[in-house]
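Why General stress protein 26? Reviewers of the renewal asked for a concrete example.
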Amino acid sequence: MTDTTPTQRVAELIKDFRFAMFTTRNAQDRLVAHPLTVQEAEFDGDLWFLVSRSASFLEDLRRDDHAGVSLSSNGSWVSLSGTAELVEDPAKVRELWSPTVEAWFTEGPDDPDVGLLKFSAESAEYWDSPGGKLASLFSFVKAKVTGEPYDAENEKVELPDA
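Here is what the prediction returned.
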């Protein structure tokens, strides 16, 4: 691992994630998670998503803008807590647009259903088992055999305002 601050470490981990679970609180005050594709690899405290303007969770955000984002890969996990809002910024939609997004929005970036969701993280917690799946499996077996705790990096991080 490189010599980085906890905030930089969160950014370093997030750049490798492609998909996220975006969690809101619905009208019945229940937590509900929705799968979204991360649109921007550079994490500066904000994550951007292209979403359908008719997505049910947007109504949840109108009532309560607090949200969570969870990301995972073979050996890393990140949980973010913050707020989210639908933003009107056609230039940002075009910046984030990719051929993959066209599977959901066939009319292109000018599709009237394309919404731009900005998630602003306030805090994070991450767990990282460097080396991927094989290293994670080795650490798990080692912990079971030796009785020592599972060897993984874990930290809670308060993120500065971007």
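The chain has one domain: 6-158. This is the kind of structural detail the renewal will allow us to pursue systematically.
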